[in-house]
């Protein structure tokens, strides 16, 4: 029942109880016939307690009157006390001021003050005046503050301190202060001579407590009067309340009015039916809602419930003594929930109260609410499952799986082909590819996954997909437009029991990514408008996930394409090292790990590996910038520490330039390891910028890590130098360079990873390719959170027979013999085709070293896949090519070197410089009779340095 019917029940349960407890007769009997049933003697105290604990208007009136009387008396007493306090203070001020002025103007005071001993004459008079005035003291002192009289003789002659400036100016005053004896009042009056000049001051203090003692003797009279008034008022209030209780039987006017208001509300306003059925099944009361629900006649009250046209089951319940709780009964076209309770022992007549509630609409709403809850739960599950991956196909499959069978029996997702590739879909076009489906049997008649399908232009399905409009076909068998697109496939679909279809486009940012087909078959109800709205909501959420996956796929593809274009596509040809490598991108996307193999002049090779913190396009682009920078710096033939120093300066400048732009985060956090291997000597020089140390696996199975001096990562501008480390390696040693993604992850710290790498490299000798496979299998985690780069190089040594060296004295006459010896060595190596060009190159380089360089001068020939001629001297001055004039006798030598050599250059060392020139050997070598270009002079001159 509603709140009003609840109050009505409480009234029914309460009113008779009060009547019984107070001897009140039921409605319809004479209340005077039952007066005086309770004896007065021994039961008086019990009756008083019952009266005090009963909620009645009489008790409330009594308590209210009693409280008012107490408040009035308290206010009167408070007013008297306040007035008394005020009178006390006023009396104290008047008394002290009168005493001070009277004594100050008394006869003979001036003579006494002017006498030789004023205290002897004034002290007796002051004490007599003090006692007569009722003050605590009469103090006389001169203007210098010396006390002449005082109630305490010990204070006479002492200097008085006080605010007596007004009295000294001839004005009496009164002050209140808090002294040692409590609140006190003091008054002072000036003593003037015949000319009006103030010659002394008289002060009279009095303690307020002394004045109040006289008033306190009046308080018992005040309190006695108050107690008497209280007793008289209480007695009168009790008599009035007793009379009121007898007349109302414990129910006050407000409660009785509320009772009748509730009675009217139950009869007319409560939207729940109420029936009161008496003994014998006679209807005693029916409210308006009960009349409407049961379609009762206007004069139904007083008739038997069996004569009201109710069904037999309802009549049996109303006439029986059985209680009921929410029993459903059919009345006309309504489903009524009935509740029945007996009125005993509360009512005067035995009967029952019946409440009725119409549950017809409630059951319909309950079904809709349950359906709505199921749909919300489905949307929640869809949001959790569909957004869990950034793969377009898996996102489409999650949409199909989450909707079957809770919403549809079959769900098929079709996407535009560019979406599957991560590209932006075209604005128009109805060609779609099946991406996922769920709920289909093996022999289903629908298009399989991966098949490209289209719709006839102008059909509702094609228009809906192309323009982003949803379409519902509740009855497929009766839709000629749908069947006309592919009659044979439509027949097969209908034969599988499919009878209803919805096509909902996947819209994201106003672009159609594809469409979702929802099918129902068998006994499932056909789709309606509410289903279409829900399908659009579900498809809208899925479209966001698919679009996110598409954009992620596009960005990942772009990043991987950029990275592949920036990473080395193949290793350069060289004889110094046998190299193998592995690169594995992280699950989170493209990272910034990179490596490189760079051939250097002088039969040397540089191995580089680096790591840029982060993932995505910025990391890949940063990696490319660093790789290109390393290539450029390596062309200068710098040592590893110098190269890293230049690279650190470059990164710092890039970061500074990018601070004022939106180019992205700084490069700070990039590491790099640069290793140079000399093919001739077998020496390794390495320097690191915050990167992990390289590992060396020796041919005998030992493994050790090269630890160059610790240096910070690139771009920190720490100012610390990069220090290299050098050592010689035996032939067949394996240099292993790697990034931190290989040896460090969440489940393994760095030290454990390095030990695992040491264990994987130890053991018998393996090729670089086999070493890469072994290391990746042993250390690579299942799902790497960081990308992994691995570079393995096995060292080789150049045959000493392919190396020839000469020391040259700084004498022009020494050039010819060394040149001839070099030509013989080239001929002995079977390179007769290069003898002429080698002779020309060495002649120019050795002559320059003798003329412009300094000792020691050294010549070296290296026979690798190229023929390398090196001339070293102790000078750091580098020759350079310059345009010689027609009249110049010199300056054309380097032109000739550049003409005959495939490459040439200069590298520096702590002992000076080395000028080298490389010539191709084998098929790439130029013919022996090849002549220089026409613009070069026939005479071979020498170029100067500087």
Automatic annotation (TrEMBL):
What range(s) does the GAF domain occupy?
374-556
Q: Where are the transmembrane segments?
A: 61-82, 219-240
Region feature (Disordered): 1-45, 919-946
Biased amino acid composition, Basic residues = 1-12
Q: How does it sit in the membrane?
A: Multi-pass membrane protein
- Main subcellular location of this protein, as a coarse class: membrane
Question: What residue spans carry the Basic and acidic residues bias annotation?
Answer: 934-946
* Residue ranges annotated for the PPM-type phosphatase domain, each copy included: 574-795
Q: Enumerate the subcellular locations listed in this protein's record, separating them with semicolons.
A: Cell membrane
Keywords for the protein's UniProt record, in alphabetical order: Cell membrane, Hydrolase, Membrane, Transmembrane, Transmembrane helix
PANTHER family assigned to the protein according to its UniProt record, in alphabetical order: STAGE II SPORULATION PROTEIN E (PTHR43156:SF2), STAGE II SPORULATION PROTEIN E-RELATED (PTHR43156)
Q: What is this protein called?
A: SpoIIE family protein phosphatase
Species per Swiss-Prot/TrEMBL record: Streptomyces siderophoricus
């Amino acid at each position: 029942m509603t709140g009003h019917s609840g109050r009505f029940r409480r009234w029914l349960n309460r009113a008779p109880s009060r009547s019984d407890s107070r001897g009140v007769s039921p409605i319809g009997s004479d209340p005077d016939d039952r007066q005086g049933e309770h004896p007065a003697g021994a039961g008086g105290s019990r009756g008083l307690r019952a009266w005090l604990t009963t909620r009645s208007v009489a008790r409330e009136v009594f308590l209210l009157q009693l409280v008012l009387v107490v408040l009035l008396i308290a206010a009167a007493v408070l007013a008297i006390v306040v007035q008394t306090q005020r009178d006390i203070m006023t009396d104290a001020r008047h008394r002290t001021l009168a005493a001070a002025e009277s004594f100050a103007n008394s006869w003979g005071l001036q003579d006494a003050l002017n006498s030789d001993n004023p205290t002897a004459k004034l002290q007796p008079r002051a004490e007599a005046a003090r006692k007569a005035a009722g003050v605590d003291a009469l103090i006389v002192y001169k203007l210098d503050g010396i006390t002449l009289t005082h109630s305490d003789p010990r204070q006479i002659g002492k200097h008085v301190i006080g605010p007596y400036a007004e009295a000294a100016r001839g004005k009496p005053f009164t002050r209140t202060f808090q002294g040692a004896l409590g609140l006190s009042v003091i008054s002072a009056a000036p003593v003037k001579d015949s000319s009006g000049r103030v010659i002394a001051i008289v002060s009279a203090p009095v303690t307020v407590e002394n004045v109040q003692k006289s008033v306190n003797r009046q308080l018992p009279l005040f309190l006695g009067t108050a107690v008497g008034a209280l007793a008289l008022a209480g007695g009168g209030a009790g008599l009035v309340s007793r009379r009121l209780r007898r007349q109302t039987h414990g129910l006050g006017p407000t409660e009785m009015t509320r009772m009748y208001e509730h009675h009217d509300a139950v009869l007319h306003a409560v939207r729940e039916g109420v029936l009161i059925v008496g003994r014998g099944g006679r209807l005693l009361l029916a409210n308006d809602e009960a009349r409407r629900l049961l379609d009762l006649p206007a004069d139904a009250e007083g008739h038997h419930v069996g004569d009201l046209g109710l069904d037999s089951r309802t009549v049996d319940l109303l006439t029986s003594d059985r209680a009921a709780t929410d029993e459903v009964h059919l009345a006309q076209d309504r489903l009524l929930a009935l509740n029945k309770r007996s009125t005993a022992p509360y009512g005067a007549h035995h009967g029952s109260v019946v409440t009725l509630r119409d549950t017809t609409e409630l059951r319909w709403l309950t079904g809709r609410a349950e359906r709505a809850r199921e749909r919300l739960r489905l949307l929640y599950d869809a949001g959790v499952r569909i957004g869990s991956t950034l793969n377009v196909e898996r996102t489409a499959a999650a949409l199909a799986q989450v909707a079957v069978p809770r919403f549809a029996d079959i769900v098929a997702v079709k996407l535009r082909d560019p979406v599957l590739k991560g590209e932006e879909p075209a604005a128009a076009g109805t060609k779609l590819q099946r991406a996922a489906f769920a709920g289909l049997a093996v022999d289903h008649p629908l298009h399989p996954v991966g098949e490209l399908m289209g719709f006839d232009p102008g059909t509702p399905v094609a228009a809906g997909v192309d323009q982003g409009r949803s379409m519902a076909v509740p009855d497929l068998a009766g839709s000629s437009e749908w069947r006309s697109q592919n009659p044979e496939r439509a027949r097969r679909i209908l034969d599988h029991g499919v009878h209803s279809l919805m096509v909902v486009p996947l819209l994201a940012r106003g672009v159609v990514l594809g469409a979702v087909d929802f099918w129902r078959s068998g006994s499932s109800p056909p789709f309606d408008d509410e289903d279409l709205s829900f399908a659009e909501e579900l498809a809208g959420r899925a479209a966001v996930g698919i679009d996110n996956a598409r954009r992620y796929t596009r960005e990942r593809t772009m990043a991987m394409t950029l990275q592949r274009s920036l990473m080395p596509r193949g290793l350069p040809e060289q004889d110094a090292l046998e190299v193998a490598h592995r690169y594995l991108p992280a699950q989170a996307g493209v990272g910034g790990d990179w490596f490189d193999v760079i051939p250097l002049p002088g039969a040397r090779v540089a191995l580089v590996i680096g790591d840029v913190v982060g993932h995505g396009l910025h990391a890949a682009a940063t990696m490319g910038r660093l790789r290109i920078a390393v290539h450029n710096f390596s062309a200068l033939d710098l040592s590893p520490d110098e190269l890293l120093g230049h690279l650190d300066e470059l990164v710092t400048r890039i970061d500074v330039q990018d601070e004022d732009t939106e180019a992205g985060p700084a490069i700070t956090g990039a590491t790099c390891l640069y290793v140079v291997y000399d093919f001739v000597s077998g020496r390794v020089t390495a320097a690191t910028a915050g990167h992990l140390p390289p590992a060396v696996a020796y041919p005998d199975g030992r493994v050790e890590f090269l630890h160059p001096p610790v240096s910070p990562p690139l771009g920190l501008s720490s100012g610390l130098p990069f220090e290299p480390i050098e050592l010689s390696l035996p032939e067949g040693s394996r240099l292993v360079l790697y990034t931190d993604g290989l040896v460090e992850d969440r489940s393994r710290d760095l030290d454990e990873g390095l030990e695992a790498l040491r264990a994987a490299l130890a053991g018998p000798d393996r090729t670089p390719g086999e070493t890469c496979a072994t290391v990746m299998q042993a250390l690579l985690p299942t799902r790497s959170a960081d990308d992994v780069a691995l570079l393995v190089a096995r060292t080789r040594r150049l045959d000493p027979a392919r190396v020839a060296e000469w020391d040259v004295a700084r004498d022009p006459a020494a050039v010819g013999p060394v040149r001839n010896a070099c030509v013989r060595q080239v001929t002995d190596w079977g390179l007769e085709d290069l003898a002429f060009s080698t002779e020309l190159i060495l002649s120019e380089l050795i002559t320059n070293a003798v003329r412009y360089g300094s000792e020691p001068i050294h010549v070296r020939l290296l026979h690798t896949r190229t023929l390398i001629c090196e001339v070293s001297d102790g000078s750091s001055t580098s020759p350079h090519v310059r345009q010689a004039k027609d009249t110049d006798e010199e300056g054309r030598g380097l032109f000739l070197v550049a003409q005959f050599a495939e490459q040439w250059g200069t590298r520096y060392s702590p002992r000076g410089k080395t000028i080298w020139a490389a010539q191709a050997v084998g098929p790439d070598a130029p013919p022996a009779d090849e002549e220089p270009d026409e613009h070069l002079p026939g005479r071979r001159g020498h170029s100067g340095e500087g």
